[in-house]
TrEMBL record:
Belongs to the plant acyltransferase family. GO terms for molecular function: acyltransferase activity. Residues 1-20 are annotated as: Disordered. This is BAHD acyltransferase. PANTHER family: F21J9.9 (PTHR31623). Pfam families: Transferase (PF02458).
Amino acid sequence: MAGVDVVSISSRSTIKPSSATPPHLRTWKLSMIDQLIPNVPIPFILFYSPSPSHPPAAILAHLKLSLSGALTKFYPLAGRLDEPTSTVDCGDQGVEFLEAQAPGVVDLAALLLMNPGTELRGQLVPRACGSTAECPGGALLAVQATVFNCGGVSLGLSISHKIADGVSYISFLQSWADSVTTGGSEVVLESGYFPPLELLLPEQDRRPTERTMQRRFVLDGPQLTALRSANGLYAATTFPTPTRVEAVTGLFWCAIIRAQADLGLAGKGAAHMVNLRKHMAAPATETLLGNFAFPVILTEEEGEDGTWRRLGLKLGKAARELNYESLQAARGQGRLAFAVKSREEMARLPMRCGFSSWCRFPVYEIDFGWGKPAWAAFGGPVVKQSVFIVDRKDDEGVEVWVSLEQEEMERLVRDEELLSHVSLVGSQS
């Protein structure tokens, strides 16, 4: 399907909150972490199989009506970003909702078995949010519902990373779905936990380029169990069994280092995003909107013997050592120094790779009333040189979405050590 437009847009509309946002909530302040995050879209797609009792026309009507209600709770998503002031104008400007058709797809199940590539997935998500160059209006969310000839539907979203991390992204989707089936639960939004910086730091440009490729690797349940046990190498107390995420992170980190070294590229650092909500003084609600993830940074030299097993465990140890006290510098008078130090640590790691885990997120529980998703997928790269780890639907395995520059990816997909543990599925096109 390379080079072919499979999807056609049939209508565009603007969905606004069903009730007006009160004047005292008109301005939403970005947090310090939000300010440090690049303004790029996170494209994500949920695929739903045909439902005999829910024809596509009814599904689209329900989605638009329920989105209007969900936006009253997540009202900043219907606003507009003002980057110079690090605020969101919550004036209920609304969200663009695209309706689309893919008449050539007669069987959604067959399409998913084909492992649709980046080009096709890219047609299933809107491109109307993210960088101001792409969206001068500063929209933070856009939605696209695509109807397949078989009656199946995909729901593609682009949410600006400037206002949402993975947890708040899925929380919004879950709240939206719950508003259809149960009326939804109470949502509490808070924007002041990490006060904004008065002096803005230059944004690091990690936007994907035309040469950024995204590939999907899979470890099913048995493969992941074998990776974690590593033929008994973890039996010693000094070498404990890693978590799923630690094992996968270490494996891919080493493979990416090898791919970059083969190109003569320096730098062996990696950053792993850690959810800060569980480290706060009081457990934070998952509905906190914004970015509450921060990178734990390590270099390969700190990995002692340099094996992927060690690297994964070192990342896990550093993440566990993050605690409430260590976050206070990010909240008080020293937050500028904290931000500058973090930025300097990132800058000194050329060709670094960023890891983010979406494991244990209730992605496959997002049911709008016509069934749970058949598959969830990224609609394209979020940032370059990144790795996203996501649960598989039907077992304890994971999918690993890797975005690298073309020359790096060409070497990664031929890495024998990596391919001895994982399966490469789908294609780039």
